[in-house]
Write a structure and sequence with these properties.
By secondary structure, the protein is mainly alpha-helical. It folds into 2 domains: about 80 residues, Arc Repressor Mutant, subunit A, CATH 1.10.10.10; about 140 residues, Up-down Bundle (Four Helix Bundle (Hemerythrin (Met), subunit A)), CATH 1.20.120.530. The chain is about 80% helix and about 5% strand. It contains 9 helices and 3 strands. A 3-stranded antiparallel β-sheet has the order 1-3-2. The chain is elongated, with a radius of gyration of 19 Å. It comes from Pyramidobacter porci.
Length: about 220
C-alpha cells in the first residue's frame, strides 16, 4: 500500500540523517579522534538500525572529507594534517573575505547591532571559560555574515570547510592562549561594515581566519 511504503521510506531517511549529523558532530567536537576506526556494525547497534543507513551516512561524511575508507582496513576518521589544515584556512579566508564584502554592501538596518550582540555572546563565553561552546558561538557570528552576504554558493562551500576548521578550533580553544584575539578581530570586521568600507571588511575577515592559523593553530598542530 502507498501510505505504509511512504512512511517506511521517511523513517529510513530520517535515521540516515540522524546518524549523519551525530557522527559529524562527534568527529568535529573530538569525541571521535583522528585516525579512529569506525565500526559500522557498532554504529548500527547503537542507533538500533540496519547497516544501510550507517553506510549511507558514512558515504556523505567521506564526500566531506571527514572520514576515509581504506581497502581491507575499513573506515577511519580523517587525520588532522598541518599542511591540509592551512589549505582549509586559506580557502576560508578568501571566501569569507568575499562574504564580508557582500555583507557590507547588502547590509540592512539592525545587521550591525546583531553582529555586535553575537560577538558579545562569544566574548562572555570566553570570559566564563565555556570552551566547548566557543566554536558554536564563533560559527553563529560568521553564519550571520553569510546571511547578510546572501550568496548560497559561497555559503555551501564555507559550510563544508568550516566543519574541518572546527575540528582544529575545538582543539585550540581548549589549549590555546589569547582567545580574546578573535573578539577583537570580529570587532574590526563589524566596525568596517558599519562604516560601509567593503574592502576593509573583506580584509579583516581574511585576517581573522589566517591570523587564527598563523598565530595559534600552527603552534599546536
Amino acid at each position: 500500500m502507498p501510505i505504509p511504503q511512504r512512511k517506511q521510506k521517511f523513517v529510513r531517511e530520517s535515521a540516515k540523517e540522524k546518524i549523519y549529523r551525530t557522527l559529524q558532530s562527534w568527529i568535529v567536537n573530538g569525541t571521535m579522534k583522528p585516525g579512529e576506526r569506525i565500526n559500522d556494525q557498532e554504529i548500527a547497534e547503537y542507533f538500533d538500525v540496519s547497516r544501510t543507513p550507517v553506510r549511507e551516512a558514512l558515504q556523505r561524511l567521506s564526500e566531506q572529507g571527514l572520514v576515509y575508507v581504506e581497502p581491507s582496513k575499513g573506515t577511519h576518521v580523517s587525520p588532522l594534517d598541518e599542511n591540509n589544515t592551512f589549505t582549509i584556512y586559506e580557502a576560508l579566508a578568501l571566501l569569507s573575505g568575499c562574504a564580508a564584502r557582500l555583507a557590507c554592501q547588502k547590509q540592512k538596518n539592525g545587521d550591525v547591532q546583531k553582529l555586535r550582540e553575537l560577538n558579545a555572546v562569544f566574548q562572555k563565553a570566553i570570559e566564563a571559560g565555556e570552551n566547548q561552546k566557543l566554536a558554536t558561538f564563533d560559527n553563529q557570528f560568521h553564519g550571520y555574515l553569510l546571511e547578510m552576504a546572501d550568496n548560497a554558493y559561497i555559503s555551501d562551500i564555507i559550510y563544508t570547510l568550516t566543519l574541518h576548521a572546527n575540528r582544529c578550533e575545538n582543539l585550540y580553544f581548549e589549549r590555546g592562549p589569547d582567545k580574546m584575539a578573535s573578539v577583537r578581530e570580529h570587532n574590526a570586521i563589524i566596525d568596517a561594515i558599519e562604516a560601509r568600507e567593503s574592502e576593509a571588511s573583506g580584509r579583516y575577515a581574511e585576517e581573522n581566519w589566517l591570523g587564527f592559523y598563523h598565530r595559534r593553530l600552527a603552534k599546536i598542530l
